[in-house]
Amino acid sequence: MLQDKGLSESEEAFRAPGPALGEASTTNSTSVPEPTLAAPGLSGAALGSPPGQGADVAATAAEQTIENIKVGLHEKELWKKFHEAGTEMIITKAGRRMFPSYKVKVTGMNPKTKYILLIDIVPADDHRYKFCDNKWMVAGKAEPAMPGRLYVHPDSPATGAHWMRQLVSFQKLKLTNNHLDPFGHIILNSMHKYQPRLHIVKADENNAFGSKNTAFCTHVFPETSFISVTSYQNHKITQLKIENNPFAKGFRGSDDSDLRVARLQSKEYPVISKSIMRQRLVSSQLSAKPDVSPLHSAHQALQHYQYENGAHMQFAAAEPQDLPLNTFSTQRDSSLFYHCLKRRADSARHLDLPCKRSYLETPSSVGDDHYFRSPPPYDQQMLSPSYCSEVTPREACMYSSSGPEIAGVSAVDDLPPPPLSCNMWTSVSPYTSYSVQTMETVPYQPFPTHFTTTTMMPRLPTISAQSAQPPGNAHFSVYNQLSQSQVRERGPSASFPRERGLPAVCERKPPSPHLNAANEFLYSQSFSLTRESSLQYHSGVGAVENWTDG
DNA sequence: TCGACTCCCACGTTTGAAGGGA
DNA sequence: ATCCCTTCAAACGTGGGAGTCG
């Protein structure tokens, strides 16, 4: 069915111009320490196949699959070029694509197992930066993190064969600085450093979402970290973008761009842009790599993806200091940070989850509604309560996010989660009632991870404007991307419901069934973050009890 | 005053509809 | 009627410049 979707984004990647590195070059970046993939301290039992338990074959296969998955960064050399100069990504109110775009080559998947591939972008540290003297310098403490969103690959869920067949491109991912962004783009703060992360979530319809076999892994490529800007600061980056981005071809040529400007301004002489002037003024310093001050030491953390039944999935958020996310000072070997966790049954609840049904029932299709709310950045997630929403299969949701208030709080696990207030996005019918329930957060225990059960969560309606939410509440949302043209057509009220001071109930186009399935899968999860010892990668086991398959 | 940001511009690329021919 | 190919216009993505804002 995936073949019927026409040109997928991953297929587009093959057509995309630009230097494409061979498989061999990307293989290095995968460099997942395979021998250690079994996760230090993680026994076979922890992986969900304890001897004597009669673990089914599917479970074993799933575990092997998730552990064997390798991800290679496409155009790694290009990323390195940018990284060495200090990658900057433009963020605009309307949303701007990343360049280089995030493309990966995935191998080691079970060809028949379905996976959801998604990206989130988390702060690399808690600093705000400024470009001074041709280098990035810390300019203070970071502003409150934007509501985290996830970008789910539009092909999701798809079989491993599909993902492995070709490059997986996230080139349509867009970044914005609009806090009220109605398009589902990933919201970032300007002049902050971020680290994209790739998550691969197993979504095998044989056992349905949330089954005991569900697992996921996280891949981080340090060279993809960047500083978000509203206009390029480093002329080196500008030139790299112009040279490598086909959309910027109009600016190519050493003098053409200036000459073009001159023509535009009806001048007979080239106009030296500010960036070029700045570049020339500091050209003598260019040989020296930008040196970012030592980054703030934060704690490596885990994000707990929790299912409705309380089981956890945990995404490891590497501490910048521990992981080479701070990449502007030295050209480090881009080791891959790999986090692999699984869930297994550990409780006795029996749930008939709508998400499972919808996933199994909905056909495959491609939609652009692939933005999800991602977990809040590292330490801000520590106090995040978990919740789920009462969403129907066709309802796109955006949850409120955790806010700055929770950042840096240490005794997170002992604090009750704050109340949650939600509004919702809906494409079919608006919710008439909200159900809010808090969920106890289970303290993270140092690796080897283990999953703990929590209270069952009802599904919550979702909110469209995070700003209306008390910070520190819900911290995971699913967002169906609405095309900008659609928003334009629907007018500003639909685009910015919060500006009208309304509960932000917006009409949205019906999400694709595929994405709905993915949404539901992710709806049922929530994120929280707890402290974790410094680890570059690890795997764990999630406990989900009494999932009913089929 | 200054830096960050927004808006608009022109250019190039991408996309998909429309049309024609086999 | 179907398929394939070409053409072309609209949409989209891009960095730069001017203006705005705090």
From TrEMBL:
Q: Does the keyword Nucleotide-binding apply?
A: no
GO MF, one term, reads: DNA-binding transcription factor activity, RNA polymerase II-specific
| Biased amino acid composition, Low complexity | 37-52
- Recite the UniProt keywords alphabetically: DNA-binding, Nucleus, Transcription, Transcription regulation
The organism's place on the tree of life at top rank: Eukaryota
| Gene Ontology cellular-component terms listed | chromatin; cytoplasm; nucleus
Biased composition range(s): Polar residues: 24-33
Where the record annotates domain T-box, the positions are 73-253
Positions with biased composition (Basic and acidic residues): 1-14
Q: Where is this region: Disordered?
A: 1-55
Per the record, the GO terms for biological process are: angiogenesis; cell fate specification; positive regulation of DNA-templated transcription
SMART domains in the record, alphabetically? Answer: TBOX
List locations, semicolon-separated: Cytoplasm; Nucleus
| Protein name, UniProt field | T-box transcription factor TBX4 isoform X1
Q: Which organism is it from?
A: Mesocricetus auratus (Golden hamster)
Q: Which gene encodes it?
A: Tbx4
